[in-house]
Amino acid sequence: QLQLNSPVRDAVKVVQVGTSDYKELVDIYGTTSGWVGETGSRAATAEPQLRERAPTMGTLYTLLATTEEALDDIFFDVSNWLSTSAATKFGQAEGISALTGDGTNQMTGMLNTAPSTIGDSLALSPQRDADALELVDIATSASPVVGAIDPDRLLALVYRLRAGYRQNATWAMNSATTSAIRQLKQDSKYIWAPGLANGQPDTLLGYGVRTWEDLADPGQSTNSVLFGDFRAGYLMVD
Predict the structure, then answer these.
(1) Can you tell me the distance from the alpha carbon of 171 to that of 181, in angstroms, rounded to the nearest whole number?
(2) Strands 13-15 and 235-237, how do they pair?
(3) What is the per-residue pLDDT across 91-133, written as a single tens digit (0 to 9) for each?
(4) Which helix (H) or strand (E) covers residue 100, if one does?
(5) Are the CB atoms for 146 and 180 separated by under 8 Å?
(6) What is the DSSP string of 23-80?
(7) What is this structure's pTM?
């Protein structure tokens, strides 16, 4: 049931581990190559650069009290009701922690480190913090209204993401942001495309959209919209 109630779990990479000492190695590239003839000499090339990431962990729990008489009630399945309620709360708590968790006995959230305007290029100095998302401002005002979001800036956001990650990229936003973006037009056409059949996802500029209610409402310098390949960018361990 946690899978059904967590808004983030099915979007990120989930690994089952047997120890809290688990580490994940992330390749941030850096390998170089060269061209030579068949018999030409080959000089050593630069090696790939790795970052070691250690997920933070904690125990998510609920402690519920009931009576034996309530559990024996033949007209109301108290045990199932309690477990369903707990699973719903677990999913909500997990979604919040995956976004804003501070890493103390819980996950370190995607937004725990303030997003940075520094891009992805290895040539940049200093480089962006390993835990920080790239910040691209899509709002023209602080007010959470339709006109606060610029369609051109949304398009620019898509192409700030490297091509290799755009293939599996999706959007994430809350319902207030969704409402504002669904009303945006370019050349008198809505930029939001509803799914044509039941079960097909809505798309924004050609990419699927997820609803994560714990993201901020639209406005300047708010974390209202995420875009990326979340499986490549965030690890959750069980």
Answers:
(1) 12
(2) parallel
(3) 899 999 999 999 999 999 999 999 998 887 767 778 888 889 9
(4) helix 78-100
(5) yes
(6) -EEEE----------TT------PPPPEEEE--------------HHHHT-TTS-HHH
(7) 0.82
